[in-house]
Design a protein that fits this description.
single chain; 161 residues; 0% strand
Length: 161
């Protein structure tokens, strides 16, 4: 392949990457090419690095969309949850709910009851963040909002009485 042919391919590469929706590769291929040349990478290593960049970008984009759709309370994640103030639930149980998430896929429910101010919102929000990070769509909604949606659907005849 001569130098003119290589330049033609390089000129059309951004367009092809855009059409293939490889936006992370499109943004990084030139800097990665320079790094690959400087570090004498084999072609398969260069391709693997570009694919890795694309996969990470897609995973991050997916997570950001899941979190946006979930409407989880900001800042109420597992790392900031104080288990010493929670009664009836352990850190191990919460981790199991997040890691062994088959209960979500089978339509299982998680009901949390307790007095006001005991950490229920923080607890379920933490589980929601963990599930979203595991690739599961979640939706956070206060019980009052859920009841209101139910009554609206019922009055609009979306639900059988």
């Amino acid at each position: 392949m001569n130098h003119a042919t290589l330049n033609t391919h390089n000129a059309s590469l951004p367009l092809m990457l855009q059409q293939l929706r490889l936006t992370a590769i499109k943004a990084q291929w030139q800097s990665m090419t320079q790094k690959a040349i400087a570090e004498h990478w084999a072609p398969d290593q260069y391709l693997a690095e570009l694919c890795h960049i694309e996969l990470l970008a897609r995973e991050d984009k997916r997570l950001q969309q899941y979190l946006k759709d979930a409407t989880l309370p900001v800042g109420k994640q597992l790392g900031s949850l104080d288990f010493s103030v929670l009664q009836g639930v352990t850190q191990r149980q919460v981790h199991q709910l997040i890691q062994q998430h088959g209960w979500v896929k089978t339509g299982g429910n998680l009901l949390v009851f307790g007095a006001s101010g005991v950490g229920k919102t923080h607890l379920v929000s933490s589980i929601g963040y963990g599930l979203a990070e595991a690739g599961i769509r979640v939706k956070f909604m206060a019980a009052t909002a859920l009841v209101q949606l139910y009554f609206e659907a019922q009055s609009a005849h979306y639900l059988n009485q």
